[in-house]
Design a protein that fits this description.
Mean pLDDT: 91
Distance between the termini: 59 Å
Radius of gyration: 19 Å
CATH architecture: Orthogonal Bundle
CATH topology: Cytochrome p450
Structural class: alpha+beta
Helix content: 25-40%
CATH class: Mainly Alpha
Bound molecules: protoporphyrin IX containing FE
Number of strands: 8
Number of domains: 1
Largest sheet: 2 strands, antiparallel
Length: 216
Amino acid sequence: MDSMKAVLLNVFIGGADTTPGTIEWAMSEIMRNPEVMQRVQKEVRSVFRDEVDEEGLHKLEYLNAVIKETFRLHPAGPILPRESRESMEINGFHVPQKSRIMINMWAIGRDPAYWGEAEKFNPERFLDSAIDYKGTHFTFLPFGGGRRMCPAIQFAMPIVELTLANLLFHFDWKLPCDMRPEDLDMTEHFDTAIRRKEKLCLIPTTTTSARPSRLG
Ligand code: HEM
């Protein structure tokens, strides 16, 4: 019974903050980078005609790169906890058996040793790149890796893609009070996940350019 409770709690905690948090960070980064907004909206609006559907998602190469870049800078699971099964030596440090090891994916994602212009939101770095989120590229593990990696990738990714594609397809977006993109507050609040400290507040306007066939 206790392990059933633990599994259910894990699913609730694992699913609660991660997906909406990723969508919120992606929209924040897209708003801060108008050239990314222009490119991603152009892609979404050229792939879909009347509605966004799941079948077309695989064609959204640039949106996929935007999501990967969001994971790199704002990983929903910033710390991956592990325990060493045996004692070992890593980079000259002795790690005793059963040590608790915290892998800091947030820091690895911003490490200039692995990423050019590491602090810059640049989805283009993932275009024509073999790096994916399946747990084999150790500098990029948004869903973790190994036997404890997130069991919900196939479920979570379409939700993130569909939500963002819909937001970008149906609406144009503005920052409130004539705020400039570079003034958008990106302060982080660290909990089990890293969320925005201030909620993201945006103004949607409906657009006719997304639905040419209905107007035609
Ligand atoms: C964008 C969405 C999501 C991201 C980025 C994400 C990321 C992660 C990460 C980094 C881990 C730790 C993996 C490791 O230690 O190697 C994890 C574990 C887990 N996630 Fe997700 N997750 C997402 C969505 C979800 C959803 C929607 C659910 C459930 C409905 C879920 C359920 C779980 C569970 C149960 C675990 C624990 C697995 C275990 O300990 O064996 N996740 N997730």
